[in-house]
Amino acid sequence: MSVKQFSAVYCPIEDRIAFSFNTTEGELYSFILTRALSKSLLEQIELTVEQSFASQHNERSSKLLQEFQKDGLKKQINFEESFDGGATSPLGADPLLVSHVQLDLKPELVSISLTLVSNQVVGFSVLPVQLQALTLLIEKLARQAQWQIMADEPSAAEAVTVALVSPSSQLH
Q: Which residue spans within the chain are E strands per DSSP?
């Protein structure tokens, strides 16, 4: 199965991400991602993309190339592009709750396995650059949800501490 597009939206009432993707074969798959699963997915994606670059470059170069590619994607991705959906939904029309995610780096592709609460496993493969695009989408929604699950994002307690300490500690 070849992924054509990703789509995701934050659902504030359930505090979850509704994640969908369509395939070049015209199939639509829809899932629900929790905060914890989204954090795990982001961590696994970062590690997998690092491994992908590291297999071709030294450690320093791979990190720089990874950031360069991610920055380039930020400029290219249009989050407003319409999502095509699909002609068929092999798993049904309702989104299914994902309980576990596993990424495996293969030559040129990354295999993603989503384990559903029913213990059914849905697998698909993407290019490493598609993983980075998925990262940007999930990060955008996690910021919107104020989940504070990204490594470079301060926690709410840290943000409050910085706001309270900084102005009062300055001397004039």
A: 3-11, 16-23, 28-33, 96-106, 109-116, 121-126
